[in-house]
What does this fold into?
Amino acid sequence: MRTSRIRLMAGGIVLVLGAAACGGSSSGGGGGGSSNSGGASAPGVTSTTVTIGSTQPLTGPAAPGYSEIAPAANAYFQYINAAGGINGRKIIYKYVDDAYDPSKTVTQTKKLILQDKVFGIFNALGTPTHEQVIDFLNQSKVPDLFVASGCQCWDDPSGHPYTFGWQTDYVVEGKILGDYIKKHFPGKKIAYFYQDDDFGKDGVKGLDMEIPAGQVVTKQSYQVTNPNIAAQVQKIAASKADVVVSFTIPAFTALLKLNSLKVGFNPQLVVSNVGSDPLTLSGLLETYAKQGGATVKGNELIQGIITDAYLSTPGDPSNSWIQLFKKIHDQYDAKAPFDGNVLYGMAVAYTFAQALQAAGQNPTRDGIVAAVEKGIAQGPGTVPFRFSSSSHAGFEGAQIGTIKGTVIQLSGKPMTTDDGSGAVQEFTGTQPTAPSNGIPTG
Amino acid sequence: MADRDLWISRSTLLRHALFTLVGLVLALAVCKAIDDAHAFEYVQIPAYACTAIGLTLLTGMSGQISLGQGAFMMVGAYTFALLWPKWTTDPNLTMIAAFACAMAVSAVFGALVGVAAARLRGPYLAGATLALAVGLPSITEYEHLSNHLKGNQGLSLPILVSPGFFSDTQWSLVVGVLCVIVLLFLTANLVRSRVGRSMRAVRDDEIAASLGGLSVPSVQVLAFVISAAWAGLGGALLALANSNASPNAFGLSVSLAVLAAVVIGGLGSLTGAVIGSIVVVMLNQTWAQDLASHLSISSAKVANNMYLVIYGVLLAVAMLIAPGGVMGILRRIFGFAVPRQRAAEQ
It folds into this structure.
C-alpha cells in the first residue's frame, strides 16, 4: 500500500516538475524576440529586418519539384536584400518542412508564430496542409499571404480576413482547361484523374462547368499517400477515353503516365498547372521507371501534354521577367534547374515585395492586409490579380500551353473567368515589363 | 479477513483521491504558468500519456504486447472528430461527451481485437497488432468511406476556446492534463483491485491462474478493452491538439513512440508511462530537431527522422543497461519501495 502512495506521489511530482522545468525555460527562449528594438512596428519587424515564415514540403510525396519553390523565393529575397531591402528592411525568410502531412502543419505553423514570432506566413504550400491552420492564423490576426495552392477556400474575406490566395484558383483553372477541351475535342471521350481532396475536387468542379457531362466517361481519384494507382488507370484505360484531364501533383502525373504506358494506353493528357512542370516530370518519370527496373526517356514521354500557365514560361526567353529571374537564379540559386517551380518561387516573392512596399515605412500586420486589399499590380503574371476588400483570390485566369522540348510553349491569348457561371473570355491587356533593377517600385 | 479487505480498498480509494486532488491543483497552476509559446509543444504529451497508461496496463499488468496502440488512437480521434464539431451547444461540455464516445467506440474495437489477441501469444500477438497499426490508416482511402473520412487530408476540428482564465493554448493543455489525472486515478485503483490482481496472475502464469478459477481469455480481453479505451481518449486529445484527425498522425511511428514511452519510463509503472510520454513527445517536437541543428545536419530527411533513431537507441539502452527504465533508475538511486515493488510486479 505504501508503494502505491509513493508511486502516485512521485507521479504527481514528476508531472508537475517536468512541466515546470519546461515552463521555466520558456522565459529564456521566448523572450529573445526582436520586437523590442527600434523601428519595430509589429512582431517580426525591426528597423532593419522583416522576418516571415512558411511551411513547405521539403520532404514527402509533394517534395519533387515543390521543394525548389521556397529556396527560389529566398533567392529573390537575397537579391533584394543585397540591394538594401524594402524600405531599408531586409527580408528574412524562415521556411520549415511539414512533409505535405496535414498532421505536421499545425505544430510547425504554431512554432513560427508563437516561438519565432514571424511577421506573417508567406506562401505556405498545400491545400490539405494549409487548411488545418487558417483558423488559427486568422484568430491570431497574422497575415497569411499568397498561399501556395489554388484552393478556392483562401478567398473568404469575411471568414478569413488575413488569408490571401495567389495563383489562379483550381476552379478557374478547371474552367479554362474545360473550355479548351470543349472547343478542341468535341464529341471525344473525356476521363478525369484527380487528387481526392479540395485541390482535385475544386478542379473537377471547374471542369464540370465547361465540359458537357455526356462526354465524361469516368472520374478516378487517388490518395497522396498511396502511389499504387494501377486500379484507377485500368478503369480509365477500360473507358477508352481519348483525353485524360489530370488534377495531380507532379509525382502522380508521372505515375499516371507510367501506369498508362504499362497497359498500352496513350490518350491526350491535359494536366493542371501544378502538375505539369516539364523538368520535374521528366526527372520523376526516369526515377520511377528505374525503381521499377525499366529505362525510359522521360522527356520524350511528356511531349504534347496540354497544360496552362498564369506566369510567363522559360519557353519565352526574350520575356523581361524570365530574363530577370534567370539572372537572379544564376546568381543565388544556381544549384536548382531553372524550371517552373523556381519561376513560381521568384514570382510570388516579387508579389510579397510589392505588398511590403505598399504597406509603407512602418509595416503592421493589419497594414499589409489593407495594402493587398487595395490591389497589387500583376507583375510577372500574364493576367491581373483579383485582390480587393471583397476578394482575396489571386490571378484571374491562365493561358493554354503545350510541352515542347523541356519547356511549356504558350499559345493563344490568356483567358480569364470567375469562380461562378461567368464566361471564359480572352484577356485583352498586356503584361508590364519587369523593372530594370528587378525591385518593385510600389 | 473480509473486513480487512474492505478497509484496505476503501482507504486506497481515499488515498488516491487525495493525491489526485493535490496533483490537480498543482497541474492547473503549472499550466497557467506556461506561456503559449511553449504550451503548444506540450499539448501532445497528455495524448501520449493516456495511451501509454493504457499500454502499461496491457503489457505491464496483463502481459500482452501491443504494437498497435496507434490504431486505437485513430479510432478515438476519428470518432471525436466526427462527433464533436457537429454538436452545437457549448463545445467545452460537448467535448466531454465526445471524449466518452471516443473511448466507448475504441473500447468496442479493442474488444474485437482482444478476442483475437487472446488466442495469440508473444511474437504472433506482436505481429497481429503491428499489422493493425500499419493497415488501419489506409481505411480512410477506401472509396466508400473516403467521402466521410476525407482521405489523406483528414477531418478538421475547430480550435478549442478557453472558458476564461487560461489562454486557448493553455486550455488545450489543461484539458489534456485533466484527462491524464482522471486516467491515472482510475488505473491506479484498478491495478489495486481484484481486476488488477487477476491480470497479474494471468501475466505470471496462465495455467496457475486458470487453476485458481480465473477465466484467462476474459481477463486478457478486458485488458485490451481498457487499454483501447484509454488509447481512444489519447487519440481524441491528439486530434484536438492538432485541430485535425488524419491518417498520417496515427501511423506506425505513433504506435512505436507509445511503446518507447512505456519502456523508457519503466515497464509496468504508471508514473513511468507519464515520464516516458514527456521524453518521447519532447524528443519528437524539439529535442531531436535541436540536436540535428547542433550537429549541423541540413538534410530535412535526416533531421525529420532523427527522433526515430533516438527512440531506437533509447529502447536498446533501456533494455541493456536499465531494464526498469527511468523509474528503475530512480528506484535504484532512492531505494524506495523495492520489496513491495518486487512483490507486485515480478
